[in-house]
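Appendix B, record 7
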Amino acid sequence: MKIKHTTRIHRYLSFILAVVITFLSISNTYMYRSTAADGSYSVASFSFALESGAEYEDGQYIWEPAESVAGHQFVYRLSYVFAGQGFIEPGDVEITIPKHILRARNGYYADLCELPMTELGDSTGGNEFAYYFSGDNIVITNVVRLSSTGEGIIDIAYSTTRTTFYYSDMVSSDVPAATITLSENGSVVDEHSDNAQPISMDTSATLLTTTKKAPSKRVDPEGEWDTSWGTKPADADEYYYVLWSIISVVEATQTYLFSIEDTFDEPYAEIVGYKLAGRSTFSSIRQGSYSIDFEQSRTDYVLTRHKKEYYTDEHYVQRNTALVTLTPVDEPEEATSLGTSAIFNYDRPEFLKPDKNYNARKYGNTAWKEFFGYDWDVADYGLTEFMAGER
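Structure tokens (predicted):
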């Protein structure tokens, strides 16, 4: 009986010990989880992607502008999800993005990064995040305490600061890269990176119409040189001049070369020079580079002259033809050319006196000065004097 009692006591003690061990094990587990909840977190997901401003075409994102404007926005979206327990203290989230991604034709950056938050230190913020500059990058950081299970999005935009003429056709931007870093107690605990899609601009330049026009009359019928044309030639007084205009309509979002090849094969006549749109004088230069969209129209001029001694007829005709070519500066854009011509008709001015009867009347008032105080415009002549040309 004594042995049985002892065995029973041992069984009770073993049961109590097992209960105690189990309790301590549960307690230790609970204590570990509580410690983890005070500061264990990570980045569950992170992405950086183009949201708007360009269309996907042939494996790349392209913006095809309808007009040459500045201020077009390429919007990129930062998306993040945190996982863990506890809170993320201010300054422990840092997202780094490039300050610029768009380069102009000259190789320098020509864009502005716009963010929906204020610069760090600006008391007018009121946002969960603020930004500061770090070399060639912008760093977005939290300025308030965040939940370690939080998530969110931040839309940023890279805007063009110049018109499309200043950017090369179909040259890709820099690859926008973003990195998110989580820190705890001064040490980095997690980091993720993602690259967004670069963009390109599809610009063009096309000559839509061109029309040559002749003047309604000969320029300076007495042969006088107009000083606005430039330096007067030594033999200018030996010629008559005709000023032809060429009106063209251009649709352009890309810089282009504009040239005129004029043909003037009239005898004893020649081309004096060209005055392309935007220039003030005539010269032999018949081609120019343009970064202007003359979508309404552009007017260029050709000045010709012909020798007075050979053009004495009362009527003569001159013909002028021009080939206008517009060449976009970027490859592989193709040039467009259009021909145009005009005819100048000259009729020598002639005064035809009346060959029939005509009447002349005289009105007078002997009291004119008395009524009006002057008489300087009172007609006072006789018919004989009038016919003799004395009045």
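Remarks on this record: The helical segments are 2-36, 368-372, 383-387. The two ends are 172 Å apart (CA to CA).
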